[in-house]
Every structure is written in structure tokens, then in C-alpha cells.
Amino acid sequence: MSLVQVPQTFHTVNGEQMVVDGQTDLVLQLHREYFDVPLVVCEIDSDGILGQDFLRQHVDSINYKKSCLVMGQTSVPLWVGGLANQICRVEMQQTVKIPPNSCMMVNVNIPQKQHLGQLGYVEPSLDLMAKNEVCIMGGVVDTTSETLTLSILNYGESDVTVYKNTHLGTCESHSETSTSFDRIATIKQTETVTNTLPEHLVDLYERSTVHLTDFEKQGLKNLLCKYQGVFSKSAEDIGTTTLVQHSFKTGNAVPIRQPPRRLPLGKRQIEWDEIDNML
Fold first, then answer.
1. What mean pLDDT is predicted for residues 38-50?
2. 3-state SS assignment for residue 25
3. Residue pLDDT, tens place only, 99-150
């Protein structure tokens, strides 16, 4: 990356002059969109700031209710700023060569980790894993620890060198306490005080107690009654979640589009019955 001198002077919000190293042209990725933008390199606490010129040119609207930037058909999720809500990058502390077919613990840095909670969740970089035959083990880390480590698996047949300051992923605050309380509250709302086995769990109970003693059968029955709310009654009451998102890289392959095939006559009645059931 080469820097060119910036002719104008920049100031912070309180009027102080900023130290500017220069300007360069880079490709900025937001979610699935890529933008060629000029970036000014300067001494700021955050990793980057999007200016009004970029927002006016590329962003259609800011949806505060859903916490996202609307850019055409793409929605970029946002995180509300705060001491324990910032997302920080995770980078290599030093250059490491990982032998083939082996796993290695490496030291990492999390800049600005003081803005995270004590527990942070590391989300690995999918781009780094796609370019190299490596798998970065994410998970929960103690951000207050002096030494932070991650496991990197090299499943290829040759050495892989991961250089210093390589972007390994992101880290955000993680709270086990709040998650546990939310999960307990959800279960308690669906618990029942009766020991009568619900109809949709009778078949599961009968198939699971074939080789159990009477004492074990009663224990299983109590367990099913207590947590009956986590079992679906039919295919129609299974919900969805937005906690996990998946992206599939197809390279230069073009998506396939095929017309639907007509069902055989013997199966059309089943299709109509299922549509009536969903309606």
C-alpha cells in the first residue's frame, strides 16, 4: 500500500488538528458489497470512519429499528456503539509458519480490547480460511488476559505462513450470564406443573423406554414433561433464527435456474392436502 500526501488539513470534532500519514485507494467490503474508495490514514482510535460523502453516494437509508444500512437490495447489520458493544479486530502477534497437517496455538492481539467485556467471542475470518488451507478455531476468550491465543489448523500438504498483523477475525463482547438467564426464562414460560405426558411426546417416550427400568422410565417422563415446550408438535411450529448467517462462495460459477417440474398424478393429491394444511 502506497501513501500520497494529502493537501488539506483535518481536524477532530473538538477542533484539534489530526496527524495524517497520507491517502491511498483501497477496496472496502461491507457485507457482500465492494467499493473502491479513497482512504485517509491518520491517528484515530477506531479502525475506520465512513464519511458523509460515502453515505450519500452509496447508502439509501439507515434503518435504526432493524439496526442496518440499506444499500439497494443489501442490508448491512449495525452494532450500537458503547463500551461493551464495540467489535474489535483480531490479528497475529508475530509471523508463524504452520507445518502441514498440524494444529498450532498462536499468540494474537485484539486492539481496543479495553472496550470489550471480560468475555469476548472471536469470529474467524472466512476470507482468510478460503484463501489458505487453514481453519481458525473461534470461541470465547478472556479479554483481560495478558496472553491471548487461538488455534489454527493447517489441513493442507504444505507449510502455511501467517504473517504478523494478519487479520484473523473479529471479537465482540460475550455474556454467558445474560444468555443463560434468557434461556432459563424461555424454558420457564413453557414449563408445566402437571406430570401428564403430552400427546406429541407419547411416541417418543414409548420408543425411548423399551430397555429402561421403571425408575428410569419415570425419570424420562418427568424430564419430557418439564421441557415439553422445546419439542415441536408438528412441522408447522418450527421457528427460524437470525443468530447465525451462512455465506456460500461459488467463485465464478453462475447460479442455476430451472423451471419447477410437474408432480406425477399419484402425488398431486398429497401436494394439495399439504397446501390446505398450511393454509
1. 80
2. strand
3. 988 888 999 999 888 878 888 899 898 878 877 788 898 888 888 888 899 9
- For residues 129 and 136, give the distance between their C-alpha atoms in angstroms, rounded to a whole number: 7
CATH fold label, 88-174: Deoxyuridine 5'-Triphosphate Nucleotidohydrolase; Chain A (2.70.40)
Q: What is the Cα gyration radius of the chain? A: 26
DSSP letter string, 192-231: -S--PPPGGGHHHHHHH-TT--HHHHHHHHHHHHHTGGGS
Is 132 strand, coil or helix?
Answer: coil
CATH 2.70.40.10 in the chain is located at 88-174
Neighbours of 78 (CB within 10 A): 13
Strands (E), 52-210: 61-63, 68-71, 74-77, 88-92, 96-98, 102-109, 119-124, 134-137, 139-142, 148-154, 160-162, 167-173
pTM score, whole prediction: 0.46
